[in-house]
Structures are given as C-alpha cells and as structure tokens.
Structure to design on (117 residues):
C-alpha cells in the first residue's frame, strides 16, 4: 500500500512537472542533509544507550530501530497532512533519500557486527 502511495505521489509530481526546478545542487544538498540526520540520530542513540548501560545487543537494537520507520510514517503522514497536494513528491523526496541511505548504512553496519565474534 505504501509503495502505491509513493508511486502515485511521484507520478503526479512528474506529471505536474514539480521536479523541473530542482537543481542537481539542491538534490545533493537534500541527500547530504539526510545522511547527516541519519548519523546524528544513530550516534545520539548509541551515546544515550551507552550512558544507560545497555548491553551491546540492546545498544545495537536501539540504534537499528531508532533510525527506522521514516518511509512508512512519512508517507502516511504526508498523505494525511497534504491531501490532494500536487507537490507531495517534493515532500517525499527527502524521506525517500533518507530511507534509501539508512537501508544501505544499516546493512553495512549489520555486516560488521556479524563479523565481530
């Protein structure tokens, strides 16, 4: 269902030519901010988990779960908040970039954690 909402939003945005004014510099800037936000949240959760004396397993779980849910919640909330908006694709763009990056980053981190024993 979420993929259909995203597909519909992006399709409508392309039909309405919303992305015509989006420069490559702006696109890179949005992606950079998504990466910074991911690492900020990931490291902050790790720091707080360490201060709360979580076990390494609980710390990993908190960090992995604390950086998730963006695409699911963001898509649904944006659809509710901006009903019938032609610019919904622009709103979802940073969320999709964040989501794509977090999947890649967490998979690399998970791979490193699996090799630690």
């Amino acid at each position: 269902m979420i993929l259909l909402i995203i597909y519909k939003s992006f399709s409508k945005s392309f039909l309405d030519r919303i992305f015509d004014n989006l420069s490559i510099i702006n696109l890179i800037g949005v992606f950079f901010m998504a990466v910074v936000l991911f690492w900020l949240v990931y490291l902050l959760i790790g720091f707080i988990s360490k201060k709360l004396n979580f076990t390494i397993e609980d710390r990993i779980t908190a960090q992995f779960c604390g950086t998730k849910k963006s695409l699911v919640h963001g898509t649904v909330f944006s659809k509710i908040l901006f009903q019938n908006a032609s610019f919904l694709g622009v709103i979802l763009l940073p969320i999709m970039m964040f989501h794509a990056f977090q999947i890649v980053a967490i998979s690399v981190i998970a791979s490193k954690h699996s090799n630690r024993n």
Remarks:
- The chain has a mean pLDDT of 80.
- Residues 24-51 form the longest helix (28 residues).
- The chain has one domain: 2-114.
- The chain has five helices and no strands.
